[in-house]
Amino acid sequence: MDGAERRGEQRAGRAGVLICGAYGMRNAGDEAVLDAILAAMREIDPAMPVTVLSRDPAETAARHGAGSIPEFGLLAFWRALRRTTLFISGGGSLIQDATSSRSLWYYLYTISAARRRGCRVMMYGCGVGPVSGRLNRRLAGRVIDRCVDAITVRETASLDELRALGVTRPEITLAAEPALTLAPAPEARIDAIFERHGMARDGRYFCLCIRRWPGVRQKSGIFAAAAEYARERYGLTPVLLSVNIRQDSESACRVREKISGDCVLVTEDMSAPEIIGFLGRMKSVMAMRLHALIFSAARSVPLIGISYDPKVAGFLDYISQTNYIDFDALCDAGQLRVMIDAAMEADREAMRAATARLAGLEARNRETAKRLLAEQEDRKR
Questions:
Q1: Running DSSP on this structure, what letter comes out for residue 56?
Q2: pLDDT category of residue 106 using cuts at 50, 70 and 90
Q3: Residues with Cβ within 8 Å of residue 232, at least 6 apart in sequence
Q4: Is the confidence at residue 10, as pLDDT, over 50?
Q5: pLDDT digits (tens, 9 = 90+) for 73-87
Q6: Which of 135, 193, 234, 379 is most buried, with most CB under 10 Å away?
Q7: CATH of 187-357, one of 3.20.10.10, 1.10.10.10, 3.40.50.2000, 3.40.50.150
Q8: Which CATH number fits domain 3-174: 3.40.50.11930, 3.40.50.720, 3.20.20.140, 1.20.1250.20?
Q9: Strand pairing category for 67-70 and 264-266
Q10: How far apart are CA 163 and CA 35, in angstroms?
């Protein structure tokens, strides 16, 4: 019996999906990706069992209504693989070593383990890179090429990185960010958030989403000066929003301390649909956080990107939004003033058309997962 036959026998009697990603850490961007993947799986089959690997399984189960097991619970992980048809790695930027080599190794391990246990394996709406270490690049290319059945990527930069890693065997499809399809929370819930922070429902606001990052402390005065320019030039009240409240609140507070005059500081733990609805009411958004930019783009809000990581520039290039600057190149508020002017003159209809096109491409994520699941059902027959 060859390897393919053995995997076919292992897959018999399996059902459902196991999802692996950076979940359970109160990052609204990652939780939005999980929301989108779960919605896609429920659309494919409302009764299909779905389990999520999470840093906080109880919180994930309560928030998303899905089964959940500990991210580092290896025994539970191996047991789950035995009964799983499709293993999904993603979305988000899991295949990168900017966070750490250990993070990259963990996600590569889960992919190879799923393959060894006979699961179909999909990288779903993912970002890839940067993978900078020579040995890490060799390992990533080898594991992905040998262990993954299909990959959907969220932008062209990730497609290029896969090719550079030498990945040729899996089917690779250019798709889009899964969270682009999420709907905002009901208007009444957004009204309530505005009211809690003393914000007028029809007010004019300029939102800044600044994340924790080396050098942010030194540049907090630049962000504060940009916020004050938006108020003085365009009558926009600055709003500081923490997308990841565990990591971003300190940076937001530091910028707030340097803004003179009115400013709204929002550090409450909002769901992804609430953040989407909240950002949709802004006149412009300046953000380091990728998903703040994604959520804003989905609502056709003019953007100013601060690219601390290639994934930020990659997404903005993909939607033809060039109004961004590399974090390391940011040295004075004048650079941001020019970008605020450009944002206030942006063509919102053109942005709406670009994001509508991406929403159509995003369906490729779901279509690929559906096909992999259907192929397994065909083998059972």
A1: S
A2: very high
A3: none
A4: no
A5: 999 999 999 999 999
A6: 193
A7: 3.40.50.2000
A8: 3.40.50.11930
A9: unpaired
A10: 29
